[in-house]
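S1.2 Input.
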Amino acid sequence: MQVQAELVRRRVVHVSPTGKKRSFSCNHCFAQMVFCGDCGELYRRVHWNNHGCKSIVWRCISRLEPGSADTNCTNRTVNELLLQEVTVTAINQILTERGTFLKQLQANIAKAVVSADTLSPDGIQARLEELQKELIKKANNKQDYDAIADEIFRLRDQKEQSELDSHRREEVMNRIKELKDFIAGQETDITEFDEALVKKLIEKITVFADHFTVEFKSGITIDIEA
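S1.3 Output.
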């Protein structure tokens, strides 16, 4: 399941605020995860040699490619070690306040269930089959069937959207379950950066001048001052 999720992640094409499509660029866990809070662009991993001092940093792409943005972004460059520290802090905050976050996860589950309270793809398909029979009957009797045809086209679109929504809900529920299982099984804070854990739990990290916003795949968002 994790391998499949990673393959899907690599196929995703991010469309920047300027309309430029950006595909998967490296296999690092932070790839396509770190975003600029100022201009909305992705951050890219860079090997930096600053006066002989070598380090790995993440920079906003619009700073690396000045001509690609409408305005010059001035958001900060972030050392990779700081990004690692931020993710560890965010995960530990969930563990420290597990009672509060478990209630939030339960609320997210309830929200997903409520959003599912619509006609299912199977229900729509059953209605489509009924309408198709009516259409054939009217066509054979040389009666007008334009209204039925319009309804069939509308329901086909609705079925496609319902299937997409159902898949998204399933994904959300799976991500919520993963975080609940992690909280239940992790009795102490984590002490080291875990790349696999970041890929599994975290959806997005947004960089601002004075803080980071860490969004988990379960729907939980945490601000970390750093």
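S1.4 Remarks. The radius of gyration is 23 Å.
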